[in-house]
Design a protein that fits this description.
The complex is a heterodimer. Chain A is built from 16 helices and 18 strands. By secondary structure, chain A is an alpha+beta fold. The two termini of chain A are 20 Å apart. Among the domains of chain B are: 101 residues, Fumarate Reductase Iron-sulfur Protein, Chain B, domain 2 (Orthogonal Bundle), CATH 1.10.1060; 111 residues, 3-Layer(aba) Sandwich (Rossmann fold). In chain B, strand 10, helix 22 and strand 11 form a beta-alpha-beta unit. The N and C termini of chain B lie far apart (63 Å). Classes of the chains: A alpha+beta, B alpha/beta.
């Protein structure tokens, strides 16, 4: 329990109006977007300055109270589910874009800046922040860095990790630690930036993040290829990569997803198609045209029944509207949606797609598969009703089977959603017992009281 | 208070709708209230989690949940953008009714809803008196917008700049109409709406002018009642149902093809909330409601889709006025009407329509939300005002009298000289010589 004296100190540091203790507020910070049980925190605090943030971290450590930092709470692996009676620290009052440096192409942000807002702000200056997780309209950059979020552009542009130049964060004592720099090259000290990216709030609390920006691509071309056989589609993905073409996005949709999207958004998708590939190439106009031609040819060689190239911006938008509505469309079919992101080396996409179909059949559940085929990161989406106990047991077994399959192909449990609570018990399977012990030693050294989002990633 | 168990069992009727929320949090990107406060209990996901918690017996009393559930504009931005298709407004309105039934109405709401609104004739009388005496307490403040403010410190008015009650409400000017259609062959019932009647009678007049011009037969019964939205959004099912019955009786006296209203909120209420919230009385009331709601159309939609607007001729002796348009939530998000009011404005060549950024962002009024949370309401409204002012327009049109009140307050307080009008007025102007 949090003592009245400590609450008083929180209020002094963060301001009376920024400390929430009523149950009806705490319930709203007990969950995130993962399908897991909610956990009620003891207090939620919304600091409005880095100074207040640092003091809260220090107070939590001194009082040995667990602390979970929360951005938009869109996490899909339970990383923002707090500990019982613990502290939730909200970053959504820390929303300043501190600097956009056009000459040196970087931006410095507070952790609560919404991803899409930064992307729009830099695009207005002709610059590009590529990571575009599905939740970018609400997700925060602090959350993206803590989870190493991905998105549709991972194939060509990489993920959040590839854009973090440096982080200024608070250690458990509320002291400032500085990693990285504003320079393209930086060879000083340990690579603490690398350690902190994807650490899910277990090693430090971000105060400022320096992000790399690149020039906006001059030209894009999008197309949709239709296949009457799912293997042909996934083999085309492998073929495009094998031919050394790197599209900005290379997305896959199975028939189940196509039908759901078409029922929902009526964008004119062929509902009899076994699979679709949605492809976009970008860069200099001449190179874009050449790449687009090669991709089109490959699609045809691999047996695409038709290919539609978007002729203008409106057609291009309709392609990506269809893709973006995939999760929404699937979500409407059943009350509970489990969105997985097990990822395989990209050459294994055909095997992984087949495996999803087999698993759906074996466990007698509905799985819609879509996702970032080009980078091996599919989203098998399980549709169920958690209140149906028997089916839920089959779903849990199917999730374990998906993980086993991905690992057997040399893949990973999570391409972009993080380990959190949902996958922490599977982590040893992917790594080794020694890896967990090594990670726990780091955790113990940096956070001896285990107050920083304990239980996530490496268990307890 | 009655037994918590009973409340929980009533709430459980909403369970199938509440579980559809997958907690993705996308509502945070569109909720105008969350943009101000950043508090999860202000956004749909948080409120749905609270209702879920109430059902799961997490609360000893419903006070905290009730307070947060009522802190909502009911603008429907969340529902319109929900990936899972959660019927957020249906859930919130039903939950408010359940909670108000359990906790009782606050005294002030009880007095206003049951003492005044439930009795259309008393409401009319009070408003007429108010119109006579308002000048004692208030004075004009911005004649371009047409607003007044308090002469003396008033806790009720605060620092609002409001559109005063009309000296002569519409129902006094024209109490009753029943005309036959001309060449159009269409007979339309005209539901005026309280705000149009009492504050904007010139808009109601414009509706009559336009319908008359197009030779549409008009049926306008006497003593029309409020559509019931203030009652049902406060959870007052009793007043709501009595108003629905009152209006049904008035309008069933004559047969007509369509029921039209110039108020986005009334249209949306009759079409959606009446059908959702009126309980079966064993005497066929649901069927009566269904019939009338099927015929109900927003005036913009009626004119553009069912009558056909007549493109006006440029009046060269008058200047061309730049006009902005604000999408009322109850037109765009609730009924999907955005092109029609614009088409009506564009039919008048003396106006040049300029789009403003985020034209469909809520103006922040939200009915009684404005009374309980004026500062938040004004902060949200100020963003709308900034967008309108940045357009350089001298007029802004919108299809909802509640939005007109909020825009007037915000523009007037900022000292803008921008008139606030209804699209049907703009169209009516072009039909006049």
């Amino acid at each position: 329990m949090i003592s009245q004296a400590l609450l008083k100190e929180f209020k002094e540091k963060a301001g009376q109006e920024n400390v929430f203790t009523e149950k009806a507020d705490l319930v709203t910070y007990s969950y995130d977007a993962a399908v897991l049980e909610p956990v009620l925190p003891g207090v939620a605090i919304r600091p409005a300055s880095g100074e207040a943030l640092s003091q809260i971290v220090r107070l939590c450590n001194e009082n040995k109270i667990p602390l979970t930092v929360r951005g938009a709470g869109t996490n899909l692996s339970g990383g923002t589910i707090p500990l019982r009676d613990g502290v939730v620290v909200l970053t959504n009052a820390l929303t300043k874009i501190l600097e956009i440096n056009e000459a040196d192409m970087y931006a410095v942000v507070q952790p609560g800046v919404v991803t899409a807002k930064l992307a729009a702000a830099v695009a207005a200056k002709g610059l590009f922040y590529p990571p575009d997780p599905g939740s970018q309209a609400v997700s925060t950059l602090g959350g993206n860095v803590a989870e190493n979020a991905g998105g549709l552009r991972g194939l060509k542009y990489g993920v959040t990790r590839d854009y973090v130049m440096g982080i200024q964060f608070f250690d458990v004592n509320g002291e400032i630690v500085k990693t990285g720099s504003r320079t393209v090259k930086c060879a000083t000290g340990y690579n603490l930036t690398g350690l902190l990216v994807g650490s899910e709030g277990t090693l430090g609390v971000f105060n400022e993040i320096t992000l790399k920006l690149i020039p906006l691509p001059a030209h894009q071309k999008a197309m949709v290829a239709v296949f009457d056989n799912i293997d042909k589609a996934s083999e085309t993905v492998a073929a495009i990569i094998a031919h050394r073409i790197v599209p900005a996005t290379l997305e896959f949709m199975d028939n189940f997803t196509i039908r759901a999207v078409e029922d929902y958004s009526h964008v004119g998708l062929p509902t009899d198609a076994a699979a679709l590939l949605l492809i976009e190439v970008d860069g200099y106009p001449a190179q874009v045209e050449e790449d687009a031609e090669k991709v089109e040819l490959l699609c045809r060689q691999k047996g695409a029944t038709s290919i539609r190239v978007a002729e203008d911006a409106a057609e291009r938008d309709s392609v990506w509207t269809a893709r973006r509505s995939a999760l929404s469309a699937l979500a409407k079919l059943k009350p509970t949606v489990v969105l997985e992101d097990a990822t395989v080396p990209r050459s294994r996409i055909p095997d992984m797609v087949r495996a999803m179909q087999d698993i759906a059949k074996e466990y007698n559940i509905s799985i819609g598969t879509f996702g970032h085929a080009g980078d091996g990161n599919l989203h098998p989406t399980i549709l169920t009703d958690r209140r149906d106990k028997a089916e839920w047991a089959r779903v849990e077994a199917a999730i374990a089977a998906i993980f086993d399959k991905a690992l057997s192909m040399g893949g990973t449990l999570s391409g972009e959603h993080g380990t959190g609570l949902a996958k922490s018990c599977f982590l040893e399977k992917e790594t080794s017992a020694a890896t967990i012990i090594y990670s726990r030693k780091i955790k113990t050294a940096l956070d001896p009281n285990y107050i920083l989002n304990p239980g996530k990633i490496i268990g307890r | 208070m009655s037994d918590m168990k009973e409340l929980i069992s009533l709430m459980k009727e909403l369970e199938d709708q509440v579980v559809v929320c997958m907690r993705c949090g996308m509502c945070q990107s569109v909720c105008p209230l969350f943009a101000e406060t950043g508090r999860e209990s202000d956004v749909a996901r948080g409120k749905l989690a609270l209702l879920d918690g109430l059902m799961k017996e997490m609360f000893e009393n419903p006070n905290g949940v009730n307070e947060r559930l009522n802190k909502c504009l009911l603008c429907g931005s969340c529902a319109a953008n929900c990936p899972s298709g959660v019927h957020v407004l249906d859930i919130f309105i039903k939950a408010r009714a359940v909670l108000a039934g359990y906790m009782g109405l606050p005294a002030a709401k009880r007095l206003i809803l049951r003492g005044m609104l439930a009795h259309p004739e008393i409401f009319d009388r009070l408003a007429e008196w108010g119109a006579k005496f308002q000048n004692i307490f208030t004075k004009p403040v911005n004649e371009a917008v047409g607003t007044s403010c308090a002469r003396i410190v008033s806790p009720l008015i605060g620092n609002r700049h409001f559109r005063p009650l009309a000296a002569v409400p519409f129902h006094q000017k024209i109490p009753y109409l029943n005309t036959s259609p001309g060449h159009s062959g269409i007979k339309a019932a005209f539901y005026v709406g309280c705000l149009m009647d009492k504050i904007f009678p010139h808009v109601a007049q414009a509706v009559i002018d336009v319908l008359t011009y197009h030779e549409i037969g008009i049926f306008m019964p006497e003593h029309q009642g409020c559509c019931g939205i203030p009652a049902i959004s406060s959870g007052d099912t009793k007043t709501f149902e009595s108003l629905v019955r009152h209006n049904l009786e008035k309008f069933e006296a004559e047969s007509f093809d369509y029921l039209v209203t110039p108020c986005a909120t009334c249209t949306s209420t009759i079409k959606k909330i009446w059908t959702l919230m009126v309980r079966d009385d064993g005497r066929g009331i649901k069927e009566r409601v269904r019939k009338i709601s099927e015929k109900t159309l927003d005036i913009n939609q009626f004119l553009v889709k069912h009558v056909g607007v007549k493109p006006g001729v440029l009046k060269k002796d008058r200047e061309v006025i730049s006009i902005a348009y604000h999408d009322p939530c109850h037109l765009k998000k609730s009924l999907g009407l955005a092109a029609e009011p614009r088409a009506l404005i564009q039919a008048n060549p003396n106006y040049h329509l300029k789009e403003i950024p985020e034209s469909d962002r809520c103006c922040g009024l939200g009915g009684s939300f404005n009374l309980y949370y004026y500062e938040l309401s004004a902060n949200i409204g100020t963003k709308k005002r900034d967008h309108i002012a940045s357009s350089g327009c001298s007029t802004v049109a919108t299809g909802c009298p509640a939005c007109m009140i909020q825009l007037s307050d915000m523009l007037s307080k900022a000292g803008d000289r921008i008139a606030v009008r209804h699209p049907v007025e703009i169209y009516a102007e072009s039909l006049k010589p």
